[in-house]
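job 3f2a | input accepted
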Amino acid sequence: MKSKGSYILFPIVLVIWGFIAYRFVGFLKQDKFAISKSTNDEININQAGLTRDTFTISANYRDPFLSNIHYQPAPTSNSSTIKPAASATKISRPWPILAYHGLIKNTNTNKVNALLSINKKMKNVSTSDEIEGLKILNIQRDSIVVRFNNEKKSFGRTKK
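job 3f2a | predicted structure (160 res):
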């Protein structure tokens, strides 16, 4: 036995879907990209009255990134001598913020993974992984040994 509500709702649903189909078909038939046909007779440009605009760019303003240092362009020379590059001094980066949260051991393969928070981003790492310049050397139940910039450090497990 059908309720009286379905006799009322079914025609309403049909009217709504009919309206949607009508709008969709109307949209497809509509030509939105109509191209107007113009001839060259309509465009009348007097080229004799046009003058060429010339300009130069003067880039002698202060560089916002170099503070008070002004850019002086290097003089161009025809000699093809190449100067040796100055040896770059290695700048050591500071240690990232690390927190060791524990280990996960796969009982089937005996593979050990560690949950390590690097700069407040949780990572799942295993021994000999290298992430963001950190090399994982050893994973224990209560600590982890990490190398960064040829410097070893041991981190204990963090308490909640």
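job 3f2a | The first strand starts at residue 98 and ends at 105.
job 3f2a | closed
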